[in-house]
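User: I'm preparing a small set of examples for a lab meeting where we compare how different chains pack in three dimensions. I only have the primary sequence for this one, and I'd like the structure in token form so I can line it up with the others. Please keep the answer compact; I'll paste it straight into my notes.
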Amino acid sequence: MLRNITDTIQKHALLRGDDRVVVAVSGGADSVALLYALHHLRRRLGISLIVAHLDHGIRGPAGAADATFVKQLAWKLGLPCVHERVDVPASARLSKTSLEMAAREARYAFLVRTARKLNATCIATAHTSDDQVETILLRLARGAGSRGLTGIPFRTMSDGMPVVRPMREVSHAQAVAFLKKHRLRWREDRTNRELRFLRNRVRHKVLPFLEEQLSPRLRETLRRTSDIMAGENEWMDAEAQKALRSCTLSHGVLSVRSLKALTLAVRRRVVRAWLVDCGLPPDVVDYDVGERVEQLLAARGGTKSAALPGDWRVVRAYDRLRVERVPAKREKGFCVSLRIPGVTRLSEPALRIDAKYATGIVRERTARVGRYPSTATVSRAAVGKEPVFIRSWQPGDRIRPLGMKGSKKIQDILTDLKVPVDQRGQVPLLECRGEIIWLPGYRVAQGWEVRGPGDRCVRLRISAP
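Assistant: Understood. Below is the structure token output for the 465-residue chain.
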């Protein structure tokens, strides 16, 4: 294990002499093994260490016992230790995110804050080769492209602070074997066995099943694939940066004409690099975000905008494309790509959307805007292979209601239907190809209707779970 860590540090230039390293230590086998390894190598590498531990407030007395264990371990090794406790469950409820995501955000915020406070030069985390394989599978399940298949990078940035992973070529089993060989203690986290967490299901159910049914060397194959993709992505990213410079009119502003002249593959990478440079978190710049920008590029004339995750939006004003934050006073919107066929769930507003391929027409008369369940059918031929989004209302949105002439502002429809102003941000709209195709509880749009009982359709049903 020590040889693997040393080789990884040297091969990827993760650490250098005089580095002051904040080591993230949870108390589990992987992070304890990393701390012992770096402590053993510190003089050879010329680095100094700081132990950092965060109690997420999830495990009660067990979490407090973990903190005590880490503090005693740091004292034993003669290292400074910083520890904090945060209420991650409360943060998850407030931000309406999963417990896993809220814990990750809290952990990195704590590590970066600690590193800056103590003038550290980088953060070291104990991500292993097992974490790498699990991450690749999770990203595949979510529809990742070649970038997602690179998995966890050896070195990355978190809010401007370098984060290194010296154990990415070390397996969890190797870490445990190292600790047992040297009779070193660690803490077991029972939540690592709880299948309510997605990563645990991948670790304990999905991976063993795939190894049994597909290949016993699946982990090695996925790691090798990620290494290949990492090298190719490095080259493609360099090319994308060149193309980005050629499309840039001024800081943060791109030429629509120049973007559209690029091939789709290059354009997707340019748009991603541009959005990240403008301040969007890399984790949220996914396929759906790219598709919304693509639809904006394909739109005709005038000024249009597309909502992005969080409080961001992309604005197209004729030949110029810019990204900006939505004013703070505006309610945070939502925008999710529908799974067709399949089930899509929203957390805020709490809605379930069932979509399936069928034939015929559903004409619903009982539902009202903002009331559920609400069902409609739209033409499968009109949708084709394009993504369908469910999103919140935006100023300027219009629909061409079936059976009526011309288009109407969504705002005017909601006013006529007496939908309270403070509830309009929760009203979902269905969008495809840059058009509103259905206002649930109201009407399907002209041109998206199913014309006959034998015509193929996408049947949509929105309900409150």
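A couple of notes for your slides: The chain has a mean pLDDT of 87. The chain has three domains: 2-219, 251-325, 335-463.

User: Perfect, thanks.
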